[in-house]
Amino acid sequence: MKRKTLLTATLLVALSLTSCKGKSEKAEAQSSQPSQPEVTGMTATLLKSAEKTRAEEEAALADVPEQAEPLFKTTERRGFKMGAVISYQSALKADYTNMIKSDFNSITASNEFKAYSLLNQNESMRAENGMPVMNYSQADTIAKFAQQNGIGIRGHVLVWDAYMPVWFFKEGYRNDSAFVDSATMKKRLEYYINEVVSHFETEFPGVVYCWDVVNEAVADGINECNEYDERRIRTLRSGTPNYFYEVIGPDYVELSFKYAREATARVNPNIKLFYNDYNTFYSPKREAIGKLIESINKEEKLCDGVGMQGYVGGYGQQDGCMNPNDIKLFADAIRFYGEKGLEVHVTELALRNYDQSQAKKHEDFYEDFFRMLADSNATNNYLTSVSIWGLTDNPTLPRSDYSYKMNGPYCGIYNYNLKKKAEFYRIIKAMQ
How confident is the model at residue 88 (pLDDT cuts 50, 70, 90)? Predict the structure, then answer.
């Protein structure tokens, strides 16, 4: 059975224009005009546009399979969870949470689990033990939703230098004080990681199935790292110092995984630990990440896997989007990490598209990309979770908006009104 879509808002507007006539004018029309008068002008243009849009939508959905089960059930047979992004605000919206409950068995908080969201400066300044204090209210809202609906959480993220409040590294947690020494900062970091991991496992047992322990620690170029460091640990980010590196030292990544492993061992040894980054499928960053994980796991296996952020395509522009070679590079990278004994998660997937006229090409690219993901598990189940961050279209975003650049306004598998697009069904097709 072919799918039928509803009339678009444009069609409704057009129809309303044909009916907005006065009572006397209507009466006169009934007596002197044919029952179906010819529509001209702006109304005719709108109607034709709406008919074209409806026809395009129906054509896009004509050659895709019916959905017989939740999407996550379909991807499970190929070996991976199906995840989506969620925020505190979207967790309060029934239409969004219903969408999540219907088709996803994993969620990742956009910002609420990050240190800069959890840390409470005023309470930390008053803490008698000198350790940081957290406010979990927004994060707990997301965790409670997941717990009530049997959905797993990717904990994202324990340690990330970006947007990190500098007071966390200073004496008394004051903005204007001196930086603490390395030993003090190590104690703070260890305490923070243990407290956060323990909180979610104690309050929501078994819900957080993995943690991104460290995020984006590998520099893109040698101008932001020590040129002699084969791990390329970031010392700068767009000119801002990496205070974890500056205050703790160049081994802060390895220490973070050590602290995280000790924390999970106490509360739930089944929680997996991941290193997460972008551009993980491009050389030489791919190789640097490999070197970093070798360093983390040198004495014992502390890092279970790699989170491959899936921002694919030109950044903020159509040029470079939907390049078939990116699919090949992604497949090669999954194999590269998998052969090192690591699980692979695709953590922030956004197959970018900035041009609405390229919708058909985007649908094809989505299917090809997910077929590659399915095929990557044909012989070795390296890939165990895929999470989409470019989930919905948002054509109203200005070009200057961060989300416009990161995802693209036509990147989604849902329309802006959360209706499933052809891309959603193309995932199902790719799994067959």
Answer: very high
Write the DSSP assignment of 355-382 as a string of letters. Answer: -GGGHHHHHHHHHHHHHHHHHHTTT---
The Cα–Cα gap between 397 and 392 comes to 12
Write out pLDDT tens, residues 162-171.
999 999 999 9
Please identify which residue in the block is written with the tokens 């998660």. 345
The per-residue pLDDT for 257 is 98
* Residue 158 exposure: Cα atoms within 13 Å on the Cβ side: 33
Burial 221-243 (b: 16+ CB within 10 A, else e): eeebbeeebbbbbbbebeeeebb
For 273-320, write each residue's pLDDT tens digit: 999 999 999 999 999 999 999 999 999 999 999 999 999 999 999 999
- pTM beyond cutoff 0.70: yes
Contact 279, 251 (CB under 8 A): no
Is 216 an active-site residue? yes
The helix (H) or strand (E) run that includes residue 349 is: strand 343-351
Q: Phi and psi of 160, rounded to 5°?
A: -150, 130
Question: Degrees (nearest 5) of the Cα angle 290, 292, 294?
Answer: 70
Q: How many CA atoms within 13 Å lie on the side-chain side of 9?
A: 2
Could you say which of 57, 216, 254, 343 is catalytic? 216
Cα 274 → chain centroid: 15
How confident is residue 259, by pLDDT bands cut at 50, 70 and 90? Answer: very high
- Residue 157, preceding peptide bond in cis (omega within 30° of 0): yes
DSSP, collapsed to helix, strand or coil, labels residue 274 as: strand
Contact 382, 396 (CB under 8 A): no
The active-site residue, picked from 190, 348, 367, 423, is 348
Residue 8 has what DSSP assignment?
A: P
Other Cβ atoms less than 10 A from the Cβ of 88: the count is 17
Place of tokens 């590659």: 372
348 classed as catalytic: yes
- Between 15 and 324, the more confident residue is 324
Distances in Å between the Cα of 400 and the Cα atoms of 225, 321, 406, 409 are 28, 18, 11, 12
Alpha carbons 97 and 108: distance in angstroms, whole number = 13
